[in-house]
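Lab manual, section 2.4: Encoding a predicted structure.

Procedure: take the sequence of the chain (327 residues), apply the prediction step described in section 2.3, and record the output as structure tokens. A sample record is shown.
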Amino acid sequence: MHILVIGGAGMVGRKFIERLARDGGLGGKAVDKVTAQDIFPASAPANAPFAFESLTSDLSQPGEAEKLIAARPELIVHLAAIVSGEAEADFDKGYRINLDGTRYLFDAIRLVGDGYKPRVIFTSSIAVFGAPFHDKIEDEFFTTPLTSYGTQKAIGELLLCDYSRRGFFDGVGIRLPTICVRPGAPNKAASGFFSNIIREPLAGQEAVLPVSDQVRHWHASPRSAVGFLVHAATMDTNAIGPRRVLTMPGYSATVAEQIEALRKVAGENVVKRIKRVPDPVIDGIVAGWPRNFDAKRAPALGFKAESNFEEIIRAHIDDELGGTFVA
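Recorded output:
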């Protein structure tokens, strides 16, 4: 099996490739080669039992998608995107990267023909939903986004379903919760503070909280995100039907509940490193996001996530901090 990971140098892509290396295959099949594409080089996973190739290119440039699929990979994982805050700040860039790049990829696959029908995993977002919300958003809730990023992802979802319906590829769309706790440096996502207020205090650093303690949001760990990709790559898509996009399971928590979970896991001294600095711009963006879900289809099809926020914090400590933290 040849696997192409678009956006493979990013956090989720890197962890997915590392999981493939640890497992030695995917769904009982040997992986012969993994190609990781991104705008900056991807690092090879340690002790990989497969050939690894890093390609540096911009998917939103005409002709790049055709080059990427020339070798006809059996699995294509499309993770590449610019995040919510950046897509809102730069309208043109958001549509070029998040929409044009996706359309170029889907069309390149379609135009190969000759029986080529790969499994395509498209990572979407709960940003496709917009207010007014129900207390819990059901699988049948309208996709009426209130951000440019959410709009771009919603269009990608429709394309995925239509191209799958037409038989051009075998698509699975996964709407990711906010991934928390993200390792590494803060990014430009408006949701970044959800990770920052856990990650930095555990590392002995101060973190800024720009919103109210009562803000509620839907979360899953990076470990769960990788699990979603693995399951989407190996599941029987006959069970999905024509509605190819699924809201992934997660855990709904307020910022106050996040902080309380951090207190239980790491203690009061760690919590004291959170500094409250209100930011009306971020607060305004977050106000248009969904808060809680009643996602039934994805769990029924075998997708799994954490059942409380303490599990999410402990996954970060185990996976990124070697099982310890700065008390």
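Check your result against the sample. The mean pLDDT is 96.
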